[in-house]
Write the structure tokens for this entry.
Amino acid sequence: MKKHSRLYKMLSVFSALAITAPMFVISASASVNDSSVGNPNYISYNQDFYNSNSELCNTLIDSMENLNSEIDVEKYQLSINDIKKAMRTVSEISPELFYVSKTTYGLAIGSCVARVIPTYIYSNEQIVQMRSELESKTNEILAKIQPNMTDFQKAAIIHDEIVLNCEYSNSPDAQYTRTSVYDCIVNGYANCQGYASSMSYLLEKVGINSEIVESSQMNHIWNLAEIGGNYYHIDATFDDPTPDRYGFVSHKYFLLSDSAIKTSSDISVHYGFKTNNSCTGTAYDNSYYKNLNTKFCYSNNLFYAADNSNSGKNSKKLVAFNPETGYAEPVADISDKWYTNGGLSYWHDSFVSTDEYNGNIYFNLNNFVCKYNTANGTVTQVTNKINTSNYAYIYGMKVDNDGNFLADVKKSPLDDANIIKLNILPENKQEKLDIGFGKVNTDLLIPPKFLLGDINEDGNLSILDVTLLQMICTNSLDAKESQKLAADYNADGQIDVNDATALQIYISKNS
């Protein structure tokens, strides 16, 4: 009885004080100057604050996961601004709290917050259902991740799944905010906040550290991801073609250094941001895959994609490649043309998209879909040809979870999407096509042997190696892959003057 009396008295005090300290609105906005580094949940945002207020943040997370209507925070004696930071931090490191409004309410006593009263966008029944839908879609994506994959491969698959299955939209409606993992992964429409939250959410699921990056000047948000011990920028939003293109995904913004994302001439440079993790690694800034605009289809430690460009070594080819070793080899030829203006002209680029199903790689030509068999290197036609007499062609293709082929058939890549289901040929009617180059030469997949620092590959370390390393740093030596691997003497993922200095010190001490 005494306990109940004490509780009643405490609540009465709050009610009395609420007259002079009314309900206030807490906006979950944050300054780009807030520091952000890694946290125990893999997702990094405002970590200095989290470290100082981890109990509060975890209390908020647990309470909102349990859909509590009121959260007691009086003991933390924090200001309104601190609670704002806590709510924003929680929303970023726990993107699964998609059902909590970006604006919530609390009760203040003097200058400190006593209660946080979350605003849930949906009813409890809706939240339970939406959580289940998110879990189901998440599991579909994670099923594409194999245990032996590298972090690069996992991140590439996650990046492509997000971009290919979501369309950029910055227009909230009565039901969706367009800012959450649910909007992006389940509903398929999101703005940059939804893309970035989904990247962090899925990267966390596969054990990859990430950081949320903001630029108020750009009114934009994206990610860093830790791959191979170095952090790189990933902007899934900018890698999604606008307007949306069925079956196509850019990779220009996948794993960029600070320097590249700020200065590259062939991308929209990013500015006005600060990160806690520096992206000094340049391993992927100029990788071949930056030119590829189709899904990276994984099979036996290799990716397969179409090179749709009209110039370059692998122009208009289906290509097998491994960006982590620099390996790339064409496996099929694409000679089709996509005519326009009633057949009077055609597009310079091709419009081949790729997908994977049951270990096989599928890609469209202008009027049907082919299968590349990774086991024997053969290419076969697997669907009926569409009628192209009116100059309507396949401008993109996907394979759904049931193995159906869905194609975007229209007269121009600029037309609105027109998705149709293609008819699959019986196996005895699937004819082999004379466009394949055969099975991948697995001998080329073996990484070259090298000795760190041995640039001239004579088996010894000498001052000549230092000179050659300096030439690589200044781009005055056209180094082969094994020389580049040997040139990263301090094994930090980049080749620079620090490698030459470290090598010279080693030689001077051991000569």
User: Anything to note?
Assistant: The longest strand covers residues 220-227.
